[in-house]
Amino acid sequence: MRQIQDHILRPALEERTEDFEEMGKALITGMWSFNPFLNYDAFLFLTARLTGVPGYHYWTEEHPSVGCETKYQKFSRYTRFVLYFLILIHEIGLKYTIVRLYLNSQMVLSRFLITYFPFLAIPKFGFRNSYVRILK
User: Which tens digits make up the pLDDT trace of 80-128?
Assistant: First the structure.
């Protein structure tokens, strides 16, 4: 995993191409029916932060200089909320067993719903095209 991060993911995030942007938006948009909490800008920021791309600071004490503008300040309020929640979960919440158990139970519930009753996919893709086996 470390080699994938260092040799594929981090360089792609540092020098984003048009193909990378298009692929990322297609993946996030396509998986929205699985998890409506997905937001392209928030997940891209979080991924860049987790892979160690320079310049993706969030907490005040991480900023290299006082008063510098961060990349997430240009996001909408909803995107900033999603980003805050994701960083809170990944950097603080996952340290606690009860949080991990809760999040795992939510993933099991999401997999069940998307498999047997994809109610978010039905309006977007139609009834027949909503029933796919993506998690087999």
Answer: 999 999 999 999 999 999 999 999 999 999 888 888 888 888 888 888 8
Residue with tokens 């942007």: 21
Q: Residue 80 and residue 101: Cα distance in Å, rounded? A: 25
Please tell me the pTM assigned to this model: 0.80
Burial class of residue 42 (count of CB atoms within 10 Å of its CB; 0-12, 13-18, 19+): buried
